[in-house]
Design brief:
elongated, two-stranded antiparallel sheet, 4 helices, alpha+beta, single chain
Amino acid sequence: MPGRMVLHQDIVLNFAQGRRVQRYLERIARAGQAGAKRRAAVDTGWMRDHIVVESGPGFARWGCVDTSYDVDQEYGTWKMRAHPFMRPSVQDAIREALRVR
């Protein structure tokens, strides 16, 4: 199967390269996830435990699922100072992207 080609919307995609790109995207997303988990405020641990990586063909992303207060933690409220954990994790992902070749 390596080297098999398929034509899709006038773009020729090599499946072997596609798998390498997918692994690269997932590695970057895992670096972002690790940074977010490291910085997440911990009271009960629920929010930190629900920072997950989702991936599919051509994409990988990380974020909080099943939490209602992650945005409040990230940006703050009028009663609480911000405790950014997702935005700095983007910097972790960028560093990983620049490091990986």
